[in-house]
Amino acid sequence: MTIRKQLLSGYIIIALAVLFVGYFSAQATKELNATFDAVTVRTVPVIDAVNDLRYFGARALTNASELALIFSSSISGVNNMQKKKQEQELEDAFSDYRSAIDHYKSLVSDRQSERDREVLSMIVSTSTRLQYLLRELHGLGRQGVSADDLLLKLDEIEAYELTFLYAVDAALAFEVEQFNVDRDGVEQAIAQTRNIAVIFGPASVLAAVLITIYLSRAITSSLVELKNASLAVAAGNWGIRVPHASPGEFDDVIKTFNDMASALNSKAVDVSSSEAYCHEILDSMSEPLVVTSLDGKIRTVNAATLRLLQVSEQDLIGKPIVSLFGKSYRENVRQQWLPRLRKGNGISHEKTTYVNGEQQEIPMIVSASSMRGHNGVVDGIVYMAKVLPNAMIS
């Protein structure tokens, strides 16, 4: 059986298990949603609307009282712009207050219980009267009456405010009571859903795990062999090969991997021969030669360089090229030579010094040029040097 057929059969079994669990979960969720609707659609919005009534009523009362005192003759230092701003805030408060009342009416107007109708009637009547008194308070303030007259009106308003708050509290208490009644149904629906999840959830997970284990054992054995062989190739073992598997996609992959390993082995042999030949050429040169990467790190040196500087190859590989030059020349190499060479330009017959292993400066004439790869991009720099007598260094 091919991998595709194995995976397809496993997916079908898992899908059937998921559909089975999903059906029972959907039934339980349907009942749970119906129970929640009784709370979220009927009770919770009304509780929020009652709280809005309380808040916007208190806000309208506060704004009206402040505005009446501002217009009163006992308050000074308030300009017309501030008064207009306060009046606009009062109108906004009245608008929000009316909107809260309308919202509450829309939520409970279709209820049939006598208690709902009584509470609604009390809230609407007290709210209407309270708004009328607040506007009277505002009017008294604009007339400039004394603070005592304003306090008398505030006492009258306070009586209606208490009636309004009583009606609001009665509505809130009724909704909380209704919420507690609906809560039992919600808890039962949640318990039923939880039981389905506890029973069928682990069963479906177990089935999926068993199917996954079966499929993974049938598939991963060849993958493990391919992984180990790939790691061996990465470590330089070009001769490794993977045994052929049963006919199918993996056998094609293994065949492709073995062909690739054979090709890499041939390339590695060719590269090794080429590198050995290049090293022979470099070491046969009598003049010091250094090859670096674009970031200025030394990659290769020839035997003449090692003899001249009296160091080993390990002492130079990976170090910055500027460390080879005398201290007075290093900044020039860093700031001028390297930027030019990275752009593909060259350096010709520059007088400088190299520093050997005993930190002695050796007069040199150095030329450098950029190396380009097969795609024409600069990927390295070659430095060729010639030893000069000390007298030739200016």
Provide structural commentary.
The protein has 394 residues and is of the alpha+beta class. It folds into two domains: 3-209, Four Helix Bundle (Hemerythrin (Met), subunit A), CATH 1.20.120.1730; 285-392, Beta-Lactamase (2-Layer Sandwich), CATH 3.30.450.20. It has helices at residues 3-71, 80-108, 114-143, 147-234, 249-284, 303-309, 313-316, 327-342; strands at residues 289-292, 298-301, 347-355, 361-372, 378-387. It is elongated. The relative contact order is 0.07.
Helix and strand content put the structural class at: alpha+beta
Residue fraction in strands: 5-15%
Encode the helix/strand succession as letters: HHHHHEEHHHEEE
Domains counted in the coordinates: how many? 2
- Evaluate the radius of gyration: 45 Å
Count of helical segments? Answer: 8
Low-confidence stretches: none
The average pLDDT is: 75
Shape by Cα distribution: elongated
What composes the largest sheet? 5 strands, antiparallel
Strand order of the largest sheet: 2-1-5-4-3
In the CATH scheme, the class of the largest domain would be Mainly Alpha
CATH fold topology of the largest domain: Four Helix Bundle (Hemerythrin (Met), subunit A)
End-to-end Cα distance, whole Å, is 81 Å
Number of strands: 5
Q: Fraction of residues in helices? A: over 70%
